[in-house]
């Protein structure tokens, strides 16, 4: 056809009546690579109506049948891992191997949701009245979990497939319908993922995928009266959505400034490899990336030397070659990162490598002797730049961690487990990892941010529960 990927509504692939397309720029070539439909508000209205209708009968579909379809979709996702990964390479410059991992991890997540869902949702509660003062045993209360209705899923560019299915699968198993708005970069990978759900044979209208410009359909989607729940992962937009959304449950995973605190007794080799993995995988474009290293002065030189040696081994180049460091997602993102680097330079940070950039490709950079007056001490670069702040007490490290607006994850390196637990209790973040870099997975672990990092908790079990409501029936005996 005209080379514009169609959007998905009522079990069909459709062209938008707008006649317009949104280009997807390949971060590596900086040239348009794919195009998707620029959908209209009217098209959103239509698929919202369809989602509302489809949800009613889906909620009545036996749980085991819902699970069966999800298992089918999971298998298809794995079968289609190569073409999905190809899209991820071209649209978001994810290194080739990591792109395949994302597709496989997504398949695993979908089957786990199906298994977990049949168990969680297959169980209700039975209560009796005479435990509360003044009551006889004359009331029997039955509880079960019912779906919320229509769920709007908005994943970010860094995991357009995985962070889409982490919303879609729990919602579906719980009996909800889905309207997916993928990020523009990553939209074609997401459409391919939806194709797998299509092939699995879900009922028409239950899942739709709408593409287009945020300026045209963004607010329209998030403020749509048919939407009963929003699950969003991304940046500041999440705060704006929270202010505009109606009285509906929200699941938000926003930014992070994950601190990595290194104590004097830490295994420095272990810490260094986790800083490199945590700070530089997918070129630092993860909300759970190590975004600031806080190291005790007495071991700082030894640690920085180790990290430097490992950074020197990172390969830099195109995602097709499976390089460790690949171009960041957009030119404006690269410019933002450069702004943080220049600010640090001007204020006297020590550059462990020379700053180098070609187009959207930024070479990995470790900045030592970063101080609190530098922007990089507080802002998230979402790029391959890791700042090191030297501290003289553990309290100083905890203080820096807690002074952030963010509170996603943090990590502590020490051989003293008692100290580690005390630090975990003191750090105001949703998760603290002991002796490992921050990470969301395994995907059934709870995942949540405090403060500006989010609302609610994710992870398979929490997401299923969040996407349901308790319903009770009380039997009153004579
Ligand atoms: O940036 C999104 C976040 O969910 C990261 O996931 O698996 O890279 O820790 P992960």
UniProtKB/TrEMBL annotation:
SUPFAM superfamilies the record matches: ALDH-like
Pfam families for this protein: Aldedh (PF00171)
Xref: PROSITE patterns: ALDEHYDE_DEHYDR_CYS, ALDEHYDE_DEHYDR_GLU
EC number: 1.2.1.9
Record key words, sorted: Cytoplasm, NADP, Oxidoreductase
Active site: 253
Gene Ontology cellular-component terms listed: cytoplasm
Catalytic EC class: oxidoreductase
Single Gene Ontology MF annotation: lactaldehyde dehydrogenase (NAD+) activity
Catalysed reaction, written as an equation: D-glyceraldehyde 3-phosphate + NADP(+) + H2O = (2R)-3-phosphoglycerate + NADPH + 2 H(+)
Subcellular locations according to the entry: Cytoplasm
Domain annotation Aldehyde dehydrogenase: ranges: 13-472
Signal peptide segment: none
Family, as annotated: Belongs to the aldehyde dehydrogenase family.
Identification of the protein by name: NADP-dependent glyceraldehyde-3-phosphate dehydrogenase
Source organism of this protein record: Hibiscus trionum
């Amino acid at each position: 056809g005209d080379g514009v990927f169609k959007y998905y509504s009522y079990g069909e692939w459709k062209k938008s009546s707008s006649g317009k397309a949104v280009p997807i720029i390949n971060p590596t070539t900086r040239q348009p690579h794919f195009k998707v439909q620029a959908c209209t508000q009217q098209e959103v209205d239509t698929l919202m109506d369809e989602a509302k209708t489809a949800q009613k009968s889906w909620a009545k579909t036996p749980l085991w049948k819902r699970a069966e379809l999800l298992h089918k979709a999971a298998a298809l996702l794995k079968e289609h891992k190569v073409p999905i990964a190809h899209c991820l390479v071209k649209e978001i410059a994810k290194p080739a191997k990591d792109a395949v991992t994302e597709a496989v991890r997504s398949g695993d997540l979908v089957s786990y949701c199906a298994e977990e869902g049949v168990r969680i949702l297959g169980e209700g509660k039975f209560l009796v009245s005479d435990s509360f003062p003044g009551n006889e045993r004359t009331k029997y209360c039955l509880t079960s979990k019912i779906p919320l209705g229509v769920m709007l899923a908005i994943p970010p560019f860094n995991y357009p497939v995985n962070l889409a299915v982490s919303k879609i699968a729990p919602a579906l198993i719980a009996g909800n319908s889905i309207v997916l708005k993928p990020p523009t970069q990553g939209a074609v990978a997401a459409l391919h993922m939806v194709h797998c759900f299509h092939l699995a044979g879900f009922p028409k209208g239950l899942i739709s995928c709408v593409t287009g410009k945020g300026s045209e359909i963004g607010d329209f989607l998030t403020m749509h009266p048919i939407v009963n729940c929003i699950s969003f992962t991304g940046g500041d937009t999440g705060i704006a959505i929270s202010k505009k959304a109606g009285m509906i449950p929200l699941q938000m995973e926003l930014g992070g400034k994950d601190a990595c605190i290194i104590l004097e007794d830490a295994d420095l080799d272990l810490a260094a490899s986790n800083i490199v993995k945590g700070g530089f995988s997918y070129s630092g474009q993860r909300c759970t990336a190590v975004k600031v290293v806080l190291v005790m002065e007495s071991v700082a030189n030894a640690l920085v030397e180790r990290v430097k040696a490992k950074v020197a081994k990172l390969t830099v180049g195109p995602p097709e070659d499976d390089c460790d460091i690949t171009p960041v997602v957009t030119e404006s993102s690269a410019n933002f990162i450069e702004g943080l680097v220049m600010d640090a330079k001007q204020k006297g940070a020590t550059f462990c490598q020379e700053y180098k950039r070609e187009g959207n490709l930024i070479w990995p950079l470790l900045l030592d002797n970063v101080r609190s007056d530098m922007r990089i001490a507080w802002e998230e670069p979402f790029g391959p730049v890791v700042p090191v702040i030297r501290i003289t007490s553990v309290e100083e490290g905890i203080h820096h961690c807690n002074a952030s607006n963010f509170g996603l994850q943090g990590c502590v390196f020490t051989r003293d487990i008692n100290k580690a637990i005390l630090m975990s209790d003191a750090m105001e973040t949703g998760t603290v990892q002991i002796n490992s870099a921050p990470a969301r997975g395994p995907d059934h672990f709870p995942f949540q941010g405090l403060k500006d990092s989010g609302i609610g908790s994710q992870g398979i079990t929490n997401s299923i529960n969040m996407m349901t409501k308790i319903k009770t029936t009380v039997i009153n005996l004579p």
